[in-house]
Amino acid sequence: MKIIYAGLIGFGNIGTGVVKLLRSNREILEKRLGARIVLKKIADMDISTPRAVSVEKALLTTDAGEILNDPEISIVIELIGGYDHARSFILDAMRKKKHVVTANKALLATHGNEIFQTAEKEDVDIGFEASVGGTIPVIKTLKESLVANRIRSIFGIMNGTSNYILTKMTDEGKAFDAVLREAQDLGFAEADPTFDIEGIDTAHKLAIVLSLSYGKKVRLEDIYREGISGISQKDIEFAKELGYKVKLLAIARERETFVEARIHPTMIPFNHLLANVNGNFNAFHILGDASDSVFLYGQGSGMMPTASAVVSDLIDIARDMLKGISRRVPARFHREEGMEDIRILPMEDIDTKYYFRFSAVDRPGVLSKISGILGANDISIAAVIQKGRKINGAVPVVMTTHESMEKNVRKALKDIDQLDVVQGKTVKIRIEDEETP
């Protein structure tokens, strides 16, 4: 049986899962591939700490060069994360004509243009299914299954930690800080949860998805981003009363020559498929012009789900190697040559619906002042909820709007927040209330 040698750089949680999966499903993989994949060497800075799977000491090294410079190793698996070292290892491997598999979303979102162009120049493959959605095959779906489609829109829940927090707040009525601590205790959230709760992790994933969907170069800083740290239990409860759930959504939508690209807490109706994606699960709702609606759902992180995606890429590359071919499917679905910069619609030009929560002094004429400013900025009110219970001397007034332009909303709220009858800053959450994207 033919042997294909691979090297693994990074023996952490996901790397351990890859070793475990290759070992536990070896016979199945060999039957499906018609060859044997052998991990010839594993590189990590720490080779003394016990892992969940044991390996021979001779297999371990602290020098990634032993993998990169070994002519027998055809595929390099990069699972160290981060930027500089990972980028250097991947580019070095490609220049030595080795194929690459990575789960490094942050690296691809920031240095993807260089990496994908190098893969094309060196005529090698790069697999990165595990970088977005864990075990969910969203990369392969966009690159292959939906190749005949114009992608009209993608709505995604792409971060399990944020989704877990919002689910607990919704179902159990807990405050944000309490649920975050619980998520950290359970290992769903990092000690420093900034990347998750502020939407940075989601932005990395959306950048990759945008590039695949529209065949364009994407700059991470052009994607609008808001996190969930400002979501309160009061807003969760008002959302329920209005028939919505709050989710941290990544939204991409084709707009003539532009593309919307935004990440923020969003109210969506109870009957929306994404409203029922709970806990630490991820999901993608893709709309193609021919396929219509496609829904993908599953575990977006974790040792074995992510290892499943890594090994899937490994098998794909090995199959092409057995046929003596490479780059059968371009890494980003399109040829790198001539790939242009994406034109992202400025956030201030977005049209959508809104939820506002004002803290208003309980006196006559307050509603008319607020609604007057909204009307003067072409913002039409759809519904109003006014609660009589005072909180710190003010009563909460909730309004939802019909579709309005973001720049008008920003101007109106700036003026409203300066009123002497409004206390504090107005809470604003965008609404997407179509049943499907």
Radius of gyration: 24 Å
Helical coverage, percent range: 25-40%
CATH superfamily membership of the largest domain: Dihydrodipicolinate Reductase, domain 2
Oligomer: single chain
As residue ranges, the low-confidence spans are: none
Biggest sheet, open or closed, and with what strands and sense? Answer: 11 strands, mixed
CATH class of the largest domain: Alpha Beta
Global structural class: alpha/beta
Shape: elongated
How many beta-strand runs?
A: 17
End-to-end separation:
48 Å
Judging by the overall fold, what is the CATH architecture of the largest domain? 2-Layer Sandwich
Number of helices: 14
Count of individual domains: 3
Strand residue content:
25-35%
What integer is the average pLDDT?
95
What is the CATH topology descriptor of the largest domain?
Dihydrodipicolinate Reductase, domain 2
Give an overview in words:
- The protein folds into 3 domains: 3-134 and 303-322, NAD(P)-binding Rossmann-like Domain (Rossmann fold, 3-Layer(aba) Sandwich); 139-299, 2-Layer Sandwich (Dihydrodipicolinate Reductase, domain 2), CATH 3.30.360.10; 348-431, 2-Layer Sandwich (Alpha-Beta Plaits), CATH 3.30.70.
- The strands form 2 sheets. Strands 7, 8, 9, 10, 11, 12, 13, 14, 15, 16 and 17 form an 11-stranded mixed beta sheet that branches. A 6-stranded parallel beta sheet has the order 3-2-1-4-5-6, sandwiched between helices.
- The chain contains 14 helices and 17 strands.
- The longest helix is centred in the last third of the chain and has 20 residues, at 303-322.
- By secondary structure, the chain is an alpha/beta fold.
